[in-house]
Amino acid sequence: MNTPIEINTQGNRIVYVKTVEVSELPREVREQAGDLDQLYAVHDSDGQQLALVADRKLAFVLAREHDLSPVAVH
């Protein structure tokens, strides 16, 4: 089953970047996060997490490298 991808007017797939508190993540992820308090998650339009990274800028760069259009979620 294919997951629908939201399309913007330029034909690019949109993904959403949001801040995630490390304290709210599973123990295994918290251990890997080291001394970070926040990570950045990249989600598709259905809310499925595609990536979890330490840096906001990196989240946007990774999305663009995969031909996705990142949008910040506040």
UniProtKB/TrEMBL annotation:
Q: What name has this protein been given in UniProt?
A: DUF1150 family protein
The record's listing under InterPro entries reads:
DUF1150
Q: Native species of this protein? A: Ruegeria atlantica
Pfam families (UniProt xref) = DUF1150
Source domain of life is Bacteria
